Amino acid sequence: MNVKTQFIFFVTLCWPLAVSALNENTALKVTPLLKTTTSWDGKPIVYPKGQSEVTALIVEIAPEGETGWHEHPVPSLGYIMEGELELRLATGEVKILHPGDVLPESVGVLHNGRNLGEEPVKILVFYLGEVGSKLSVAHPEFAPPPSPDSEK
After folding, report:
1. SS3 111
2. Above 70 in pLDDT, residue 147?
3. What dihedral angle (degrees, nearest 10) is formed by the CA atoms of 8, 9, 11, 13?
4. Which residue of 64, 97, 141, 144 is most buried, as measured by CB atoms within 10 A?
5. Res. 17: pLDDT tops 60
């Protein structure tokens, strides 16, 4: 058994004890935000095979701003700190996010984020990649089909 496998095995065994210990401490309040095995579009979350690297960023999108069409080659989680965000997949599927929402991002799926409000959207994002991997790949060449509400 290699060191990485041993570590994962150890953490798996200890995790229930650690969470249980936190919940028994009256000085702490633990609020679960998310526990999932899939991204928001239902695809399984798969961790990288190489040397793991976690990246944490705060992403801000200006009022009426957009991320531009892009995809993530690695798993990521977003926590909406401020603002209202529209996430649109290339297929047309839409999800609206508000402060406090947690999003397991889609991997390898074209999508665009758009600020729906008059204040900046602030997102705390954690990327679970591997050393040297890109976090996001832009696709400015993509032209989405018209949304149903734009045809009215």
Report:
1. strand
2. no
3. 160
4. 97
5. no
